[in-house]
Design brief:
alpha+beta, 4 helices, 8 strands
Length: 136
């Protein structure tokens, strides 16, 4: 007979949550390459982060500089939380980026600086982002 069943429950819960806890981290934004790619300082390591599920125009495209400027005003020099989802073929972390309660990925879509990248955006939040997406 197990006299401490709560210990088993807590251990089981920790095992389930551990992978997701390891994939979230914080750091200071030290560069904004374009509207959907930033560099975050994690300790002494500079990590390029591609915002999950969205696409902004490149700097050379129509409104590309505007998207970059908007992203810069939201996160440059600030501490952000990065929830890693994947690593892309260029070695960038792909993730959800939050500053306080604001999810940058969604914020860019809501204000018209980004579109939901339906080809790659498969998480439940993608449907919600599509509802706030500005359509021309």
């Amino acid at each position: 007979m197990n006299r401490h069943p709560y210990k088993v429950s807590i251990l089981f819960l920790l095992v389930l949550l551990a992978p997701s806890l390891c994939l979230a981290w914080s750091g200071k934004v030290v560069d904004v390459a374009d509207g959907d790619t930033i560099t975050v300082l994690r300790g002494s390591q500079r990590i390029k982060v591609r915002l999950y599920g969205i696409d902004t125009p490149e700097k050379s495209q129509w409104h590309g500089e505007n998207a970059k400027a908007f992203t810069s005003t939201q996160v440059m020099g600030k501490i952000v939380d990065v929830q890693e989802i994947d690593v892309d073929r260029y070695g960038r972390v792909v993730g959800l980026v939050s500053v306080g309660n604001l999810v940058l990925n969604r914020h860019l879509v809501e204000y018209g600086y980004a579109r939901v990248y339906h080809q790659y955006c498969r998480k439940p939040v993608c449907s919600e982002w599509s509802k706030v997406e500005m359509v021309e």
